[in-house]
Amino acid sequence: MIRPSPKELLEGIADVLRESVSKELPNGETRNQVRAAAAIARRLAEVWDQVVPALEAENRDIDETLGSLAGALSELGLVPISSETQVAEPSSSPFERAAARNLELQEYLTEIHSALRACEDEGVRGEVEVALRALHQRNLARDRELSRR
Q: How far apart are CA 58 and CA 138, in angstroms?
């Protein structure tokens, strides 16, 4: 385990910004911005331990949704996306791997939306749109849970 952890680093940055840096600045916009940055760092520290699990859950959900749509996606002329990330190095951190996979999946979802615009088959379009809408609702629910921390 890396010490200090990202959470500890963010908390430390927040403390320094709030307790040292902002006190050296005169009242005004600059001081307010430094205090806002401290608050943002503190908020990030609070959720940092949930970022990787949240990304991994979203990635699994997208992968499962895409798997359930394999036939419809083939009808749209799309080649299935690999189940393994193609961007991150094996030695990357869990965050880097999850984030790289998420980016790949989001880019593929963009391709799906583009293909849907050109799709004339109402059945295929309807099936994919319903599944993507449900995926979006699940993503929003996960984001809501994360923001409640």
A: 9
Question: Cα 109 to chain center, whole Å?
Answer: 14
Taking only Cα atoms into account, the Rg of the chain, rounded to an integer number of angstroms, comes to 21
Q: Could you identify the residue written with the tokens 């099936």?
A: 127
How far, in whole angstroms, is CA 43 from its chain's centroid? Answer: 16
What dihedral angle (degrees, nearest 10) is formed by the CA atoms of 140, 144, 145, 146? 100
Range list of H helices, 1-149: 6-16, 22-24, 29-68, 70-75, 94-118, 122-147
Q: What's the rounded Cα separation, in Å, for the pair 63 and 22?
A: 45
Do residues 145 and 90 make contact, with C-beta atoms less than 8 angstroms apart?
no
Whether 104 contacts 84, CB under 8 Å: no
pTM: 0.76
Task: Return mean pLDDT, the chain.
Answer: 90
Return d(Cα 124, Cα 121) in angstroms, integer.
6
